[in-house]
Amino acid sequence: MTNPYRSHLPLSSTMSLQPRLSIHVKDRKNIMSSTVEKERRGIQSIEVGGQLLLALGAHGRPMQLRDLAKAAGMPAGKAHPYLVSFGKLGLVTQDGSTGYYWLGPTAIQLGLVSLQMLSPVREATAFAEALAQETQHSVALAVWGNQGPTIVRLIEPAYPLHVNLRTGTVMSLADTATGRLFAAYLPMALIEGLMQVDYKRLGPDMANPLEPKEVEVKLAEVRRYGLSRAVDHPTPGVNSVSAPVFDYSGNIVLGITLMGSSGVFDPAWNGVQAKSVKACAAEVSRRLGFHPDLSSVEQRAAA
Known about the structure:
alpha+beta; Arc Repressor Mutant, subunit A; 2 domains; Beta-Lactamase
């Protein structure tokens, strides 16, 4: 049977077209590559000057010209014209009495607009999915709801973990890694009442609840290690590690919990699972504008 897609040109004619065709394809690839490169090419002077803005943001306080230029990796004489232009745009401002530079009203307005558009759950979802894929363990995202820490997203690996957990589940403040994470970082005035009624509210569903003294010890561990964990409790055979996500003001806005079977899940504070979930939460916090300052976080939690 004749193949309808086969060329009906003589063999010699077909062969004569091949060199020209390959040249044409190569030319087209070169053109496409060149076009992509032109589209991606930026303005180098903007990228260089932008290092000054990044340095100001990273430092977190006003800076004098010499220190700012050094942090941006350029001589002060080179940095000054950039700062003059940024000042005209309102991206930086200079204190008239000290000469120190700081972010200007335009930069602040841009930051506020960006923060208004941010959603902790939306920002965290892609990272949580990657964490589940990388570790092959279940990942849960929790936010603070009107009844306490509430699961808003549950991501299962190829082999799901069989636990009594689903979207909308309210976690015990005292007896779960997710709950203790929020209890450790939220103001005591907010959680004190809920902690007292925690057992009454969730007691029937919680076997062997922890004693108050045990809870206090575990909350201290959370603040010490920056993580919360649960080992074979409240669900026997299941371990979990939770890491906090902070927003630009240093408030906890999300908990990321990694869970797995105790036979394959290492709950050590410095274990692979702990490092993975902590790195995930740190990246989401960074995207939400958090600047690491553990002392302020701890003080806020104790207030």
